[in-house]
Design goal:
The longest helix has about 50 residues. This protein is an alpha+beta fold. It has 6 helices and 7 strands. It has a 5-stranded mixed β-sheet, with helices on both faces. Strands 4-5 form a two-stranded antiparallel sheet.
Length: about 230
């Protein structure tokens, strides 16, 4: 071409240049479309992941209190039992119930009762450890699992919760209302035994009713460490 500059303007040369730019344009368009599709797929995966997280939250949490629901409670209880078995550490459980809650609902209505449940669940969350698992066990019943905990540690936390609720003023229709809770606390370890998790839950539940019969606004603890198989 240097020897014959006229070749620069030959049809063959111009066609080669045109083909090169056309190929570059096509490749750039394909790469751009691939990048767009990749971004779109990534966005879709993130959206699916987020929706799955929301669905999981709905399936495992109580909508009113944002605590784990009854079903999730037993799932986490099984998990804690497995961990306690592998690490050979005890764990504790409390089941607590709002005193005279039916009277509150009958007097102020169920919406007021829902407000109280929300406030109490928030107080419970404020006092438990990050490793503890709080659940709405029933209508006005709450349960807390204390992994790797002694009965003394669980009792201190429960007493702080009880005292906080007792001292709190609940405002219902501009009226000040006082609320108290009662509960049972049990401690368990893993060892060969005829006992199981249902026996343990029943033991703690019985302690709750014992606290009720003793005058309410208190926790009843078991001095015995139950061995689970």
């Amino acid at each position: 071409m240097i020897q014959n500059p006229k070749n620069l303007f030959s049809l063959e040369f111009l066609m080669n240049i045109f083909s090169f730019y056309l190929l570059s344009y096509v490749l750039a368009s394909i790469l751009k479309e691939m990048y767009r599709l990749q971004s779109q797929i990534s966005f879709m995966f993130e959206e699916i992941k987020e929706k799955n997280s929301v669905l999981n939250e709905i399936a495992t949490k109580d909508y009113l209190t944002n605590m784990y629901n009854h079903k999730s409670f037993y799932k986490y209880l099984k998990d804690v039992i497995k961990i306690s078995e592998s690490k050979n550490t005890p764990f504790c459980l409390t089941i607590m119930d709002i005193d005279n809650f039916k009277k509150v609902n009958d007097t102020y209505g169920h919406l007021a009762g829902d407000t109280i449940l929300k406030e109490i669940s928030s107080m419970i969350h404020d006092h438990i450890r990050k490793t503890d698992i709080a659940a709405r066990y029933g209508g006005e019943e709450f349960a807390i699992i204390f992994p790797n905990s002694s009965i003394q540690e669980a009792e201190k936390i429960c007493e702080r919760i009880r005292k906080t609720i007792e001292d709190h003023i609940f405002l219902i229709n501009r009226e000040e209302v006082k609320i108290t809770i009662s509960g049972g606390i049990g401690c368990a370890s893993i060892a060969p035994s005829s006992s199981n998790q249902h026996n343990f839950v029943e033991l703690v539940d019985n302690l709750l009713y014992e606290a009720k019969h003793l005058g309410k606004n208190q926790f009843k603890c078991s001095a015995e460490i139950l061995c689970l198989d």
